Amino acid sequence: MKTAEIHQDTFFKVAEHVWGIKDIFVNVFLVANPDNSWTLVDAGLKTTFPKIKKAAAELFGENVPPTAVILTHGHFDHVGSLKAILEEWHVPVYAHLLEMPYLTGRSAYPPADPSVGGGMMAWMSGLYPNDPIDLVDAAKSLPLSGEIPFMPGWKYFHTPGHAPGHISLWRENDKVLIAGDAFVTTKQESLLHVITQRKVVSGPPKYFTCDWYQAEKSVNTLADLSPEVVATGHGKPMSKAEMGQQLMELAYNFADRAVPSQGRYVAEPAVTNRSGVVSLPESKSGLKVALAVVSSIAIITAGLYFAQSRRNFRLSGW
Questions:
Q1: How many domains does the chain have?
Q2: Least confident of 37-51, 120-134, 201-215, 281-295
Q3: I need a labelling partner for 94 at 20 to 30 A (CA). Which of 158, 165, 247, 305 fits?
Q4: What is the pLDDT of residue 317?
């Protein structure tokens, strides 16, 4: 592994041999392995690949590809750069068996639910893509044993709810958790929180979570690990001193703190299997017109803000 000075506008350190990159509102992670190889966890947005390539060059040397990409799940903001990655590096992409339908073109995800409320990011979610991607021969199922290929010392837990095949990555020797979107460290529904990146342990992003019963079980599983460091798909990394009590409180009070008071999947989950979506609860059709108007205004406002703010993100260390 190349010794590199940490450039906060490119990447940030999470823990020993783990670095992260933030692109607009989502994180990806680069993990160094004992044999001097490295693994990429998630692929961010379509705009993320240049940042991944730059960080990898600084950390591991020019033109050193990852041994693999590990996906916590396949929502659009976690797979956006896969096409560019595979064209450049031709590496395998691993995910849980229950994510395969959405990564091989067989099924769309359950659609986002703007009716959950909580802020502009949620209101805009009706515009977020949920179509499957098709990785052809690159997609591979993770072993059911919990082992992660090319990542010795790490294992995964199946943590569904936000997505059917969602996983979280765990390194036991120093209790480092890469939680994906099983829970996050900002209020992802709120544009203000996305912009300010104020640290707060929150449930999975409400607008894409399609099974709240499973989501609660997953948060309890991760809280029981008592992690020392957590890195999530949205928000800044947090140490146990910062997040330990918050994570336990989220687990104990999940229904009050995470589950929305209304929403398409609150009373009834999406039903999925190895082939993808089987059935969906009825959408809240009465909200469609109002949400469409709000979403249109929101996306224009957010787009203008993000375009002007990306330089400020970099200067602030993110």
A1: 1
A2: 281-295
A3: 247
A4: 44
Q: Does residue 4 sit within a domain?
A: no
pLDDT at 293 over 90: no
Reported as a single tens digit per residue, the pLDDT across 225-281 is 999 999 999 999 999 999 999 999 999 999 999 999 999 999 999 999 999 999 999
What's the first-to-final CA gap in the chain, in angstroms?
23
Residue 288: which CATH number? 3.60.15.10
- Give φ, ψ of 60 to 5 degrees: -120, -5
Residue with tokens 């990429």, as numbered in its chain: 40
In a domain, residue 119? The reply is yes
Q: Quote the tokens at residue 25.
A: 């509102």
What residue numbers bound the domain in which 190 lies?
12-313
> Is 193 domain-assigned?
yes
Mean pLDDT of 77-96: 97
pTM of the predicted model, to two decimals? 0.89
Q: What is the reported pLDDT for 303? A: 52
Residue 3 has pLDDT above 60, yes or no: no
